[in-house]
Amino acid sequence: MKNQKLILFGMLILFGISLISASSMTRTLPSTASGDFQVTYNIQSATTPWGAIIRDTVSGGCLFPDGTSEYADIALSDAGTTKTITISRSSASSSCSFSGTYQFAGESKNNFATQTISITRTCTPSCSGKSCGDNGCGGSCGTCSSGLTCNAGQCISTTCTPSCSGKSCGDNGCGGSCGTCSTDKICSNGQCVTGTCPTGQTKCSDGTCKTSCGETPNGFCWQGGSDFIKSFTGNENCQTNTIILIIIGVIIFVILIVVIK
């Protein structure tokens, strides 16, 4: 079909059948679009029969019907005075610009006006369960007051105030300690009391009872060694048991030296 159009267009040129000198063409398109949109080429002041070549380009991520950024076609009088095509746009497009030329048979080439269309993307904000942070569309679900920061959509405190009121031992609420207990006492509900740790827990160096104290030999409390000594002595103080284990180790080392000699 396109070859037939080319042949007919050539015949128009050969036989000098042309438009009147005032023939022109314009391109119309919307100023904004949120999806695919249409471009229309309008032929004006043309005397039938006529033929014209359209060459257009687009930038910004929009594409002509054949999936390219360049468009070339022939418009003939038998197809009417308008020619409409559909332009697709990528999800990343924010604007697309058109520039091109048209030429009627027997006349000089003319430029289309350069035109730009703004591309808008639809987005539904979501703030369900959130008091701050991004709404998913570049907006905000709210801001946090002074002293608070937004974390996973919630305003949380950026500072911590230690609290040891009525406590002589245990955690101060900020990862610190309210004090330690003597070797013969354990920390229970913030107070140093006489007793033993529950089954499965060990007395840590500060007197608290935990399943794991997380202390190291460098702090004179080796939990694994302490548990070994505890199985023989029943003593729950991690620091004492660590010292006992070190002493035993030194004695064994001295004996081995003597035996070897």
Question: In words, what does this structure look like?
Answer:
This protein is of the alpha+beta class. The protein has two domains: 2-119, Immunoglobulins (Immunoglobulin-like, Sandwich), CATH 2.60.40.10; 195-260, no CATH class. Helices cover 18% and strands 30% of the residues. It has three helices and 16 strands. The chain has helices at 2-14, 223-233, 238-260; strands at residues 24-28, 32-33, 37-44, 51-59, 62-63, 70-76, 82-89, 95-104, 110-111, 115-119, 148-151, 154-157, 185-188, 191-194, 202-203, 209-210. Strands 2, 4, 6, 8, 9 and 10 form a six-stranded mixed sheet that branches. A hairpin with a 5-residue loop joins strand 15 and strand 16 (209-210). The longest helix is centred in the last third of the chain and has 23 residues, at 238-260.
Question: Would you summarize the structure shown here?
Answer:
The protein has 261 residues and is α+β, with helices and mostly antiparallel strands. It has helices at residues 2-14, 223-233, 238-260; strands spanning 24-28, 32-33, 37-44, 51-59, 62-63, 70-76, 82-89, 95-104, 110-111, 115-119, 148-151, 154-157, 185-188, 191-194, 202-203, 209-210. The strands form five sheets. Strands 2, 4, 6, 8, 9 and 10 form a six-stranded mixed beta sheet that branches. Strands 1-3-7-5 form a four-stranded antiparallel beta sheet, with no helix packed on it. It has a two-stranded antiparallel ribbon with strand order 11-12.
